[in-house]
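Q: Structure for this?
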Amino acid sequence: MQEDIYATNRQVTLLDILDRVLNKGVVISGDIIISVADIDLVYVGLRVLLSSVETMERQGDASREKSLIP
Amino acid sequence: MADNFLYTYCIVRRLPGEEVTDRYPDLVFIEAGGVRVVAKYVPPDEYSEEIRKLRLADEEWLDRNAREHLSVIAMVMECQPVIPFNFGTIFRTRNSLADFLADYAQRLEETLNGLEGREEWAVKAYCDEALLNEHLHLGSPAIAAIEKEIAEASPGRAYLLRKKKTELLARELESIHAALAKAIVDALLPLSEQHVLNRLIPAEGSGEDVRMLVNGAFLVGSDRVGAFLRVTENLAGRYRETGVTLDVTGPWPPYDFVDIPI
């Protein structure tokens, strides 16, 4: 669980996580090692999924923000 | 176990404590070159190329495994600095992993030293374009001047002036975005030791008039995290009426401050 990861007024989303755990840190290529998928492929493949997650999140943000405006 | 692959989480100096091994009993710790890798054995057939591709399209699988990857690292890093592996990094054999650790021993040690007592925090800032636009109309002398001109102009000239006004608005919006982004980052710099500004993620087809202004990662000394968060709260308060939202998350494994391409 990532209850240890703090996020302002919301849950940590899959997008938050993937945004950090992909394509960074120790990035390995070469034939002694394999990765879950080719790095670029992962990013392209996830983008569709990520944008849908992101859209939901932003709609939430926007409605919260608008309600603050008098 | 000899035929199994090793799924890797992170590199550390010391064995993690019982709180980690009790929670994740499948973990193994591979030692070489003066460091240890937190890993687990996985059957090779679960990670054949076809299956990997299928799984990446499976949101439920992806969510569970990405969260687990993060959770293991987050738990380990409560007690010591970590070098995180990219999600889904798998070594074919224990020997190939040990070779990697030995080859990069010095680089890994330097990286761990640099991360001691520091945390990665992510700050994203978004702005509500509609609200910003409204402010622009109200607050910009240049826009007010051109609107006055349009009101007094002949229909043909008014048409041209309106086009000019649209361009002017777009330019002013750009410069306001840049100024807001700079103000936010500048306010956070004194409290961070390093920072990285990542690519802004476009709101592709979301239909929302929300735009990302800042996608930053900050390396903050553990003793300054409280002050850092207070600054983000102050910034959020200061810019709320402008239509700017701050999204702060952390502490993350220091993905943005580890650069070990192999």
